[in-house]
Each structure stands twice: as structure tokens, then as C-alpha cells.
Amino acid sequence: MNTQSILRDLVGKKIISESHASLILEYETAKPLSVHWELRYMLYTGILLFNSGLGMIIYENIDSIGHQAMIAAIALLTAACFYYAYQKSHPYSHDEILNSNKLQEYILLLGCVSFLALEGYLQFQYELFGSRYGIAVIIPTILFFVCAYRFDHRGVLSMAITGLASWLGLTIAPLSVVYGNNLTDLKILNSAIILGTLLTVTGWLSERLSIKKHFSSTYIFLGGNLAALAAISGLINQPYKVAYAVLSLAFCLFFVLNARRKQSHIFLLIGIIYAYITVTYLIFFRISENAYFSLMTVYLTVSSIGVIYFLLNFKKILGTAR
Q1: Are both 124 and 254 inside the same structural domain?
Q2: % of the chain beyond a pLDDT of 70
Q3: Which of 37, 162, 163, 183 is 20 to 30 Å from 23 at the Cα level?
């Protein structure tokens, strides 16, 4: 049903008067339509397509264009992007910078992606870093951290955190933390927990010290996810189950407390889900097969009641109920 039909029904039921219906219809008809997110997605997609097209041009025409010419072109593009971002930027501030020039944000992002293409090209063609791949990863990581703070860009910050994880041999993207990392390997597992903990602490400190407080959610989301999933993997695959269980539940508690403080649904959901997985494993990992099915029936019933309670009261948990 459209707005006009709904208003007609409300008038017919004498819920609102015709004059109020006319005012509502006039407002709904004349109000501006926001295309903010559509434009953002289009710009992000444009940057990805531009760099993909750049890679295809290089691949298809490298013999006729020449390596030096392509390197010079990418280097000029990268330098131009960073120069434009610097020229249009505001002075550095510990607080969030509300930049009205949204194009500057995307130009900076294009510059960072182009820098990666330039470095990858130099490494592939001339083996600039030889077999020292760690240097090839840490250089853009440092650059992206500097750019993220100097230009107040959370997208570049995510790239920097991802680069730091890659430097340690980890994948930190939320959808590939489990499949992209061999979390059965004790060295990788502990690296993931340490890095995730450091990122989470950095997010917490950024709020306590009021240094880019708005970056804290990015640090906590990426770092907390990595550490909590690594702790759960250690609980399942490693012998030190008590230590990993304590770590997992500690991160779950941190997520819930942080969700209440920020009134964040995503942090609350993450904390509850990880706590449920941890508690479920602790209950079932040592029981006998005979008791397993009996306990499972009771546990599923109790869990279902818990899910219903959570859905009905999550606003009270967050402190947003009125």
C-alpha cells in the first residue's frame, strides 16, 4: 500500500483528520530523498573497478607500453592522490574531523590502493624486496596507519589493521578469520590471540585517552573477533582448555559490556554468540555418549527459551528500553 492509501484508511477510520492527512501527504511528497549510501557504494565500486581496469591494461599491453612507463604512470597517480588528499585535508586533531569534502576520502582510498598496485608491480617485475616479503607488507601497513590518523579515515585504518595481520601471517577479515587461518597451529593461534588482544586494548585506550575515539569500534570489532575466535579454536583443538575458555569468556564479557556502553547491537550479538559456543562446548565435550542425547534435549529446550528471552529483552540488556 502506498502512503495515500494508508492515509485514506486512517481518515476513514477517524484515526486522523483530513487536514492532518493532507499535511502528512504533503510532507511525504516533498521531502528530499537521501542517496548518501548509494553514492558511497558507487564510489567504492568505482575505485575497485578503476584499479581492476588498471591491472587489466597493464596485463594486456605491457609489451607495447613498457614496464618503466607503467610504473611511472601508477606512481604519478598515487602521488597525485596523496597530494590532493593532503591539500584538501583539515589539520590533524585527536577528535573526529567532519570533512565536508567527501571526494577527498575516496581519492585517499584510491591513492592507498594504487600504492599497493605500485609496490606489487615493483616486487613482481624487479623483485624489489627479494624474498623479504615481510618488508613488502609492513611498509604499506605503516603508511596506511599514518594516513588513517592524519586524514581521519576509518576505511584506511581497516586496511592498515589488515596489513598488520598479514605481516603476522593472519587473515583478519570477519568472514575469513576461521577459514583463512590455520588456527589448529599453536603458533598462529597464539599470534591471533595476542594481535587481537592488542588491537582490542588499542581501541579501549583510544577512548580512554580521547585519541581518535571513533576508531575504537574498528579496533575492537576486528581485534575482538580475531582473538575470540582464536580462543574458541584453542578451546576445541588445544589441551589447555581452561586457559582458552577463560580467554573466550573474558572477550565475550568485554563485548557485552562494550555493547551496553555504546548501545551497540552488533557487539552484544557477537558477545552472546561466542559465549553460547564456549559454554556449549564446555558442557558437552566430556560427557558420555549415553548422556549426550538426554542432555542435548534439555539443553536445546533451555537454549530456545534463552534465545526467546534475549530477543524480547535485548533492549533492556543494552539499556535502550523506554
Answers
A1: no
A2: 85
A3: 37
265 lies in a domain? yes
Q: What b/e sequence results for 179-193 when a residue is b if at least 16 CB atoms lie within 10 Å of its CB, and e otherwise?
A: eebebeeeebbebbb
Residue 47 and residue 118 in one domain:
yes
pLDDT, average across residues 209-225: 92
Instruction: Give the number of other CB atoms < 10 A from CB of residue 164.
Output: 21
Q: Are 199 and 319 part of one and the same domain?
A: yes
What three-state secondary structure class fits 312? helix
- In this structure, the answer to whether residues 197 and 144 fall within a common structural domain is no
Distances in whole angstroms, Cα of residue 27 to Cα of each of 10, 18, 23, 30, 89 = 17, 14, 6, 5, 37
Residue 140 backbone class (left: φ over 0; alpha: ψ -120 to 50; beta: rest): alpha
Q: Which domain holds residue 197?
A: 176-322
pLDDT at 172: 60
The helix (H) or strand (E) run that includes residue 142 is: helix 133-151
Phi, psi of 264, rounded to the nearest 5 degrees? -105, 120
Q: What is the mean pLDDT of residues 191-195?
A: 91
Q: How many CB atoms lie within 10 A of CB 300?
A: 10
Q: How far apart are CA 276 and CA 272, in angstroms?
A: 6
Which value, in Å, is the radius of gyration of the alpha carbons in the chain?
26
In a shared domain, residues 163 and 214: no
| pLDDT tens digits, one per residue of 236-269 | 888 888 999 999 999 999 999 999 888 888 898 9
| 121 confidence band (pLDDT: 50, 70, 90) | confident
Confidence band, pLDDT 50/70/90 cuts, at residue 7: confident
| pTM for the model | 0.77
- Asked if residue 29 belongs to a domain, the reply is no
Which of the four pLDDT bands, split at 50, 70 and 90, describes residue 112? very high
Same domain for 180 and 322?
Answer: yes
In the chain, the number of structural domains is 2
Q: How many other CB atoms are there within 10 angstroms of residue 173's CB atom?
A: 14
